[in-house]
Amino acid sequence: MAEISSDVIRGYNDIIILFLLLNSPSYGYEISKQIRTLSEDKYIIKETTLYSAFTRMEKNGFIESFVDEDMAGGKKRTYYRLTEAGREHYRAKCEEWKLTKEVIEKFIADEGALL
Q: DSSP string covering 52-69, please?
């Protein structure tokens, strides 16, 4: 099975994380698990990459963090939620992706051309 290079996907971590925060706040481990599940194990985000993205996006005002206690064990957990600026950034990154995909697809050979 082919894996996605971290260099290729690095620029899209924001769009992935922001997508997962569109409808409700979440926390790091849950977001990591959702990425793995939705990508069908083709992309497993490293913990350091995830938390670096959280820090950068929070600094840029795209997300905000808050601490909540885990209902199961009373453990404090940091959650992240999307801000309005984050919604705008998400929309802009989606448009950027559509353009990027359109351009790159012009350079992808059909399976028959590779024989």
A: HHHHHHHHTTSEEEEEEE
Burial of 43 (0-12, 13-18, 19+ CB in 10 A): middle
Predicted structure pTM score: 0.85
Structural contact between residues 47 and 32, judged by C-beta atoms closer than 8 angstroms: yes
Structural domain boundaries in the chain:
6-104
81-107 pLDDT tens trace: 999 999 999 999 999 999 999 999 999
The two tokens of residue 52 are 């670096």
Q: Determine contact, residues 67/78, Cβ cutoff 8 Å.
A: yes
| CATH assignment, 6-104 | 1.10.10.10
Q: What angle do CA 34, 38, 43 make, to 5 degrees?
A: 85
